[in-house]
Amino acid sequence: MIVFSVICAIFTSNTEQLSSGILNGAEKAVQLLIKLFGAMVFWSGIMKVAEKSGLTAKLVKLLSPFLKHLFPDLDKDGEAFQSICMNISANLIGVGNAATPFGLKAMREMQKQNLKKDTASDSMVVFVVMNTASMQLIPTTIGYLRQSYGSSEPFAIIPQVMAVSACALCVALVFSLTINRCKKWK
Amino acid sequence: MEIIVPAGVAIIVAYGLFKRVKVFDAFIEGAIEGLHALYMIIPTITGLVVAVEMLQQSGGIDMVCSFAEPLADIFGFPKEIVPMAILRPVSGSGATALLTNIYENYGPDSIVGQIASVLAGSTETTFYAVTMYYGSIGVTKTRHTLPVGLLADTTAFIMSIILIKAI
Predict the structure, then answer these.
(1) Contact, A70 vs A122, CB < 8 A?
(2) Chain A partners within 8 Å of B13 (Cβ)
(3) Stronger pLDDT, A6 or B145, i.e. the higher one
(4) CB 3.0–4.6 Å: which of A14, A170, B42, B60 could bond A8 by disulfide?
(5) First-last CA distance in chain B
(6) At residue B138, what are phi and psi to the nearest 5 degrees?
């Protein structure tokens, strides 16, 4: 990506902007990390409370009938599976900054069971692919943004957003699961 | 809607107290874990954000768009949303900036505005999720994650146009 940018800059004679872009980018990265910082620490703490009180286990029971088909090689009572459930619930209600810490925990737990440490396991692929597709039920940010630009019906697009999200998620799941299965047959 | 998150936190804490968990000790234990996870993703995030910023500043995105726009025309896709569709998997804030541009120029209730809204609401920043999650645990071979993620984004792009145009 960086090499491509440099080549483009030379073609379009944007080299000056590019060099300032490097510094700006580094600055933006720190801003992003600071934004993540509070959420990360807070939600990881809250998750631990939920885990110790047994609340996570209840949520797992609720979601596992669906999720066990997506992650066949994970232990249903394991920490990886618990974190995945928390990540998905946070995504569904649209608390993105809570979903990230749960997701990172899920990855750490899955890595413990991973045999090849530099290669993604089947469950990791399915999990990350789910997170690259949007699972949010109600797109609040977009709704508010539409409202502030004078939309007469800011939330009129919700049915379409749901339908499109569902389609994209299905495509993502079907393809990642199929490719996972193909590999096993070899 | 705003009540969901605080209520959720309150329920978790209240349930913890009810079950006689040492709530604050557990919170600190988890928070330290979270801090460690954040420390692990600093290098990956910095690298990605710099690369994305370079891509935008260098005109790389514009160049890709100038190739993709005539293509979109052939299929009857509105070319106004092509830049946003291309930027969306790479940069969330960049895509939001383009979204507000579209709202300003065409209005949020126009066909283009509606398609852009649906697209923005039904996709995520794919590259960011992939680099962050794999970067945090040092996995470099991501196998079919990125192709499938981008395929889902393409599906969302096509579906949002079809659904809005059909209604």
Answers:
(1) no
(2) 46, 49
(3) B145
(4) B60
(5) 28
(6) 75, 25
Per-residue pLDDT at A14? 66
Residues 6+ apart with CB under 8 A from A12: B58, B59, B62, B63
Could you report the predicted ipTM of this complex, rounded to two decimals? 0.84
DSSP at B123: B
Low-confidence residues in chain A, pLDDT < 50: none
Q: What is the distance in angstroms between the Cα of B91 and the nearest Cα belonging to chain A?
A: 12
Percentage of chain B lying above the pLDDT 70 cut: 98
N- to C-terminal Cα separation, chain A:
33
For the segment B6-64, what is each residue's pLDDT rounded down to a tens digit?
A: 888 888 888 888 888 888 888 998 888 888 888 878 888 888 888 888 777 777 777 88
Packed helices B111-122 and A158-185: angle between N→C axes, nearest 10 degrees: 40
The residue count for chain A: 186
Domain boundaries, chain A: 21-185
Q: Is any Cβ of chain B less than 8 angstroms from the Cβ of A113?
A: no
Q: Are residues B152 and A111, on separate chains, in Cβ contact within 8 Å?
A: no
With CB atoms and an 8 Å threshold, state whether B54 touches A22: yes
